[in-house]
Amino acid sequence: MGYDIERFVGYVNEGLLCSICRDVLEDPLQAPCEHAFCTACIHGWLVHHSNCPEDRQVIDVSLLRPLYRYMKNDLNRLQLHCRNREYGCEMVCSLESIDRHERECEYSQIPCSNAGCRVQIERRNLDGHLAVCEYRSRECPNGCGYTILSAEDTQHNCVAELRTELELLRSEMICRVEEAKHEMESRLDSQRRHMVQKESILQNEIEELKSQMSRMMSDVRSLMAAERQHRQELEQAELEKREL
């Protein structure tokens, strides 16, 4: 379906009207015979027919093309009233920008955002409605902290809600304690493994040092023995020298 022609300001060229619904073209397509249609209108027509509704020439969906650029420009320049005119909106703008305006129009009827509320309200009045909506969420006036979402919730049992909240807090605390305990145990195990590993490395280093020290002592004893042998040989040579 096209745009209601009654919404437009001034004269609308006949060539910019849909040949099926006779309203101003919306999302237009053009047949090879140059007759133009709203996309929804011509697709619906071709479900049951195979020809142009104006001159009965055979057409197919594959033959439909976008509107000529000059016609598209003429269409976009048309001026029309906002669809919320009946609610008080006095905006008149081009067809090209009407969708953008209507998406943001303060007079648009929109649903209340509170779950369960079926009220349709103008966008400009939404904040005021939300402040008094019986489905708005608010805390219990008795101070138990319960969130009231509907009129039925005002009859809730504060003691029961507090008990439920307490149980939830206790469960959450137990879970957090268990998580902290597991994390601490994991850290202790990691540190213990690190200490054992480090101890093993130090033990190996000590054994290696002992082995090196043992070899050094053996070398020292060998050197001392060689020195005594050398001294004895010198003494013997000295005696032989004296005898000669």
TrEMBL record:
<protein>
    <submittedName>
        <fullName>RNF41 ligase</fullName>
    </submittedName>
</protein>
<dbReference type="Pfam" id="PF13923">
    <property type="entry name" value="zf-C3HC4_2"/>
</dbReference>
<dbReference type="InterPro" id="IPR001841">
    <property type="entry name" value="Znf_RING"/>
</dbReference>
<dbReference type="GO" id="GO:0008270">
    <property type="term" value="F:zinc ion binding"/>
</dbReference>
<dbReference type="InterPro" id="IPR001293">
    <property type="entry name" value="Znf_TRAF"/>
</dbReference>
<feature type="domain" description="TRAF-type">
    <location>
        <begin position="101"/>
        <end position="144"/>
    </location>
</feature>
<feature type="zinc finger region" description="TRAF-type">
    <location>
        <begin position="101"/>
        <end position="144"/>
    </location>
</feature>
<feature type="coiled-coil region">
    <location>
        <begin position="192"/>
        <end position="243"/>
    </location>
</feature>
<keyword id="KW-0175">Coiled coil</keyword>
<dbReference type="Pfam" id="PF02176">
    <property type="entry name" value="zf-TRAF"/>
</dbReference>
<feature type="domain" description="RING-type">
    <location>
        <begin position="18"/>
        <end position="56"/>
    </location>
</feature>
<keyword id="KW-0863">Zinc-finger</keyword>
<dbReference type="InterPro" id="IPR017907">
    <property type="entry name" value="Znf_RING_CS"/>
</dbReference>
<keyword id="KW-0436">Ligase</keyword>
<keyword id="KW-0862">Zinc</keyword>
<dbReference type="GO" id="GO:0043122">
    <property type="term" value="P:regulation of canonical NF-kappaB signal transduction"/>
</dbReference>
<dbReference type="GO" id="GO:0016874">
    <property type="term" value="F:ligase activity"/>
</dbReference>
<keyword id="KW-0479">Metal-binding</keyword>
<dbReference type="InterPro" id="IPR013083">
    <property type="entry name" value="Znf_RING/FYVE/PHD"/>
</dbReference>
